[in-house]
Amino acid sequence: MDNRVIYSVVVPLYNEELVVNASYRRLKKVMDTTKEKYEIIFINDGSKDNTRKMAEDICSADENIKLVNFSRNFGHQAAITAGMDLALGDAIIVIDADLQDPPEVMLTMIEKWKEGYEVVYGKRTKREGETFFKKFTAKMYYRFLKSMTNVDVPVDTGDFRLIDRKVCDALVALPEKNRYVRGLVSWVGYKQTYVEFERQERFAGETKYPLKKMIKLACDGITSLSYKPLVVAGYLGALAFLIGMVSIFISIIKDIIYNTEFVSFMMVIEINLMMFGITLGCIGILGQYIGRIFDESKGRPIYIIDSTVNYGASEKKYKISN
Ligand code: UDP
Ligand code: MG
């Protein structure tokens, strides 16, 4: 039999001891139906619970399962990046471990890939078991992002998607550190389509995306695809300048006509506060970009690999770092 891997399923894991076994069983069941050779790559993103041991046990019983252990928690996007770097397949599927993305949808993605599409992303028509806050902010964010960039980023999609080897190679060649993978997939282009699915409730455990990580991801999305916020900062500055000029002009006229003080003491403080707010806000926007430029200039790797399992002869190669 041809030993070439056709499908690589990339599964990031962060403190997922409650789902890793169920996830493996369900993914295996679905991928076995393809009757083609596949690998499942678990990326253990510095889990502090029992995830590593459980994934290692799965690997020792099934050689199609590979495990990459990071030296610490580098984040979901870094984990996906590592999966793509190490994937051997002709098609690479990224899926969350918690079974919120139904593994059965992978088969529909594979059908589309066989029709000739090079990117098949999962579009969420419904999201079960997530808070109103998360659903609302996500909905608003994806629309905001779309309006901020010229790249056609599809709304209501996460990282659950299939990409062709060509697309994977193009992504791997992008050197940037603060990665917003779903945006980069849109940016590289190729023939893209989508399949619709209903996002399920998490199989077990809690979300590993607290608000802080969500905000970081959201900022990465905008800064990696657009510099419009900087332009908006410039407009705000111009607007503030204009308001200032007009109010000075009115003050002078009023002073001349009525010989009184036009602007009250409180108003001076309020206007100053507003102007400070605008200035600091703009510096904050600048900071978002400068921080990322700083990250890029340091040239550190996106992740560091501590160890791998089931990589055979190439195991050593991946041991130090990417
Ligand atoms: N994840 C990760 N590193 C992190 C956070 C999350 O590898 O720092 C993984 C997590 O184990 C899961 C996927 O990324 O497989 C998506 O995370 P989660 O389901 O918690 O996010 P949500 O669906 O709540 O947005
Ligand atoms: Mg989830």
UniProtKB/TrEMBL annotation:
Keywords: Cell membrane, Glycosyltransferase, Membrane, Transferase, Transmembrane, Transmembrane helix. It is found in: Cell membrane. Its EC number is 2.4.-.-. One of its GO terms (molecular function) is glycosyltransferase activity. The keyword Cell membrane applies. Residues 8-170 form the Glycosyltransferase 2-like domain. It holds the Pfam family Glycos_transf_2. One of its GO terms (cellular component) is plasma membrane. The chain crosses the membrane at residues 230-253, 265-290. InterPro entries: Glyco_trans_2-like (IPR001173), Glycosyltransferase_2 (IPR050256), Nucleotide-diphossugar_trans (IPR029044). Belongs to the glycosyltransferase 2 family. GtrB subfamily. This is Glycosyltransferase YkcC. It comes from Clostridium saccharobutylicum DSM 13864. The lineage of its organism: Bacteria, Bacillati, Bacillota, Clostridia, Eubacteriales.
